[in-house]
Design a protein that fits this description.
Elements (H helix, E strand, L loop, with lengths): L1 E11 L17 E11 L5 E8 L10 H7 L3 H5 L4 H11 L3 E6 L3 H12 L8 E4 H8 L8 H7 L11 H13 L3 H9 L4 E4 L2 E4 L3 E4 L6 H12 L10 E2 L4 E2 L3 E8 L3 E10 L5 E8 L2 H23 L10 H5 L7 H15 L14 H10 L6 H9 L2 H4 L5 H8 L1 H9 L10 H13 L3 H25 L12 H14 L7 H28 L1
Parallel strand pairs: 1-4, 4-5
Antiparallel strand pairs: 1-2, 2-3, 6-7, 8-13, 9-11, 10-11, 11-12, 12-13
Helix pairs in contact: 5-8, 6-7, 12-14, 13-14, 13-19, 14-17, 14-19, 16-17, 18-20, 19-21, 20-21
Length: 525
């Protein structure tokens, strides 16, 4: 039986809107482009190697930074195999392997994510972090970069790094200087736990973390699709019980069919961008008890904060309200939002037209759908006018039904008129807000303004300059300043067709008057 040391190189997709997404909803932020692995005996003596380039799917291209770092060319990628055919070959090569090692946790995470994206099974051998074994056996270590560690272990570095095969070989040379079998034994050993007051003090068996996402729902989807894997055999885990804790930090049991139950601590992090971190612990009765003790004080504080809010009439008991969590499946968000908006806008008309108010939100949804398929953003598009035009409806009500992320997007797109603030001041404040907006907020705002611009173009064709008398601001020059400033504010979205249409409509509306004036002069010429 053998060990395998593996290294992967991958392409990166930084833009959330361009991240490849499978039909089952798995997002692939890094796509493997090269596999390098060396098979050894238990004394780290080389036996065999595996090296393969992987073609990018879906017409995707190599990131410029990745190309520069790895020196992998488009021709190298084109000569490779599809991951769907390469993965089974690699799995077959791993058949007689006891354990897989990589330097750091990222290779394992990316490999499992790619398998989940293509709906392929993971090999059943254990996967270990060689970096952790080194850190445990060399307590006085310095930085853990592979090149630095190799130099500290007096391993001569003559290979060019950031090549999968070379990095795997260098990792194996470093591991040759360690007691790998003792490291594996220590790695598998039950971690010791100790309690200090009400705080849980223990070292997790394994930790992993998602990328940064624009909302908690997207981060949670990645965590469940890519990170919920057994630390020992890489097979998918299934949730096996109820969670305890708060909305941002909780413990929940998960089960592997081969290795039994784990207790997983989930932690949401980030302020503007959200992440989820999973820490895996053995699900022993002692650790379960310590987890309950740790979460108990946090739960009480959470409830006290909730009680300070005004109670709704005929509300459920405070403890029940405190534990209310929005749990709408992603595919249900948009249909529920449309029904909610239709009911909220019932018997309302928009502006001076006869069309029902709900027609505008539906058009905003259709525009947004040309730029994103994020269900939370599309739900916010359907609901974007509700706070502004429906008396009595609050952001808290939106949050309770659809979650904090949807409520935040709707609030961003809501303008509550202040009678003491002038029109230009309000519009300038809106433009300033757009300057600091993220891409989701810009997509929502552009979808709303494009719907307005379409109506503006239609009505201007019929009413000419009489149109402006219908607005609170009847000065055409002020309206031109506002809409042309919006064109500049939405420029980060110029890759979308919606931006081109908006720019064209604004240009045509505010150029018609000038064209009309210049026509007689041209005839007289």
């Amino acid at each position: 039986m053998y060990y395998v040391v593996i290294d992967l190189e991958w392409n990166q997709y930084h833009n959330p809107l361009r991240t490849p997404t499978s039909r089952s909803g798995v997002k692939m932020h890094e796509e493997i482009i090269q596999i390098g692995a060396i098979k050894t005996d238990h004394q780290m003596n080389p036996v065999d190697t595996f090296r393969m380039f992987i073609r990018l799917g879906g017409g995707r291209r190599l990131d410029k930074y990745v190309k520069k770092l790895t020196h992998i060319s488009d021709a190298d990628i084109a000569s490779g195999e599809d991951f769907v055919s390469a993965a089974p070959q690699f799995a077959e090569w791993l058949k007689d392997v006891d354990a897989v090692f990589s330097w750091g946790p990222d290779d394992r995470r990316v490999y499992l994510n790619n398998l989940a994206f293509f709906d392929l099974p993971a090999p059943s051998c254990a996967w270990y972090d060689a970096q952790k074994i080194y850190a445990s056996q060399v307590p006085e270590h310095g930085p853990l970069a592979l090149k630095t560690v190799a130099e500290s272990l007096q391993v001569r570095v003559t290979l060019s790094l950031h090549d999968a095969m070379n990095d795997a070989i260098l990792t194996a040379f470093c591991m040759y200087q360690l007691n790998v079998e003792a490291g594996v034994e220590a790695y598998n050993k039950q971690k010791e736990t100790a309690a200090s007051g009400d705080t849980l003090q223990m070292k997790p068996l394994f930790t992993c973390k998602t990328h940064r996402h624009m909302n908690q729902q997207a981060a949670w989807e990645e965590a469940c699709n890519g990170l919920l894997r057994c630390p020992q055999c890489m097979q998918p885990l299934s949730w096996s019980g109820d969670e305890i804790g708060t909305l941002t930090r909780f413990y929940k049991p998960a089960k592997c069919d081969t290795h039994g139950e784990y207790l997983i601590r989930g932690e949401f992090g980030g302020s503007k961008m959200c992440t989820v971190k999973f820490s895996f612990f053995p699900a022993t009765p002692e650790i379960l008890e310590l987890a309950k003790k740790e979460m108990q004080p946090a739960a009480k504080r959470h409830r006290r904060r909730r009680r300070r809010k005004p109670a709704a009439p005929a509300a459920a008991p405070a403890t029940e309200a405190a534990e209310t969590v929005v749990s709408i499946a992603p595919e249900e968000l948009l249909p529920r939002a449309i029904v909610f908006a239709a009911e909220a806008h019932r018997q309302q008309a928009r502006g001076t037209g006869a069309a029902a108010r709900i027609v505008h939100p539906m058009e905003v949804v259709s525009v947004a759908a040309t730029m994103t398929d994020d269900p939370a953003l599309l739900a916010a598009a359907a609901l974007h006018d509700t706070l502004e035009t429906c008396p009595g409806l609050t952001a808290e009500a939106i949050e309770k039904t659809f979650g904090a992320h949807v409520a935040d997007l709707v609030s961003f797109e809501t303008e509550i008129a202040d009678p003491e603030t002038g029109w230009r001041e309000r519009k300038q404040a809106e433009l300033d807000r757009l300057k600091g907006a993220d891409e989701e907020q810009l997509i929502l705002a552009l979808s709303d303004r494009l719907s307005d611009a379409r109506a503006l173009s239609r009505e201007y064709a019929a009413l000419k300059d009489g149109l402006w008398q219908r607005f609170n601001q009847a000065d055409r020059r002020e309206q031109a300043w506002y809409y042309k400033a919006l064109v500049v504010a939405f420029k980060p979205l110029e890759r979308f067709g919606a931006y081109g249409e908006f720019k064209h409509l604004i240009s045509s509306v505010f150029a018609r008057r000038r064209a009309a004036k210049s026509a007689p002069e041209e005839n007289n010429g």
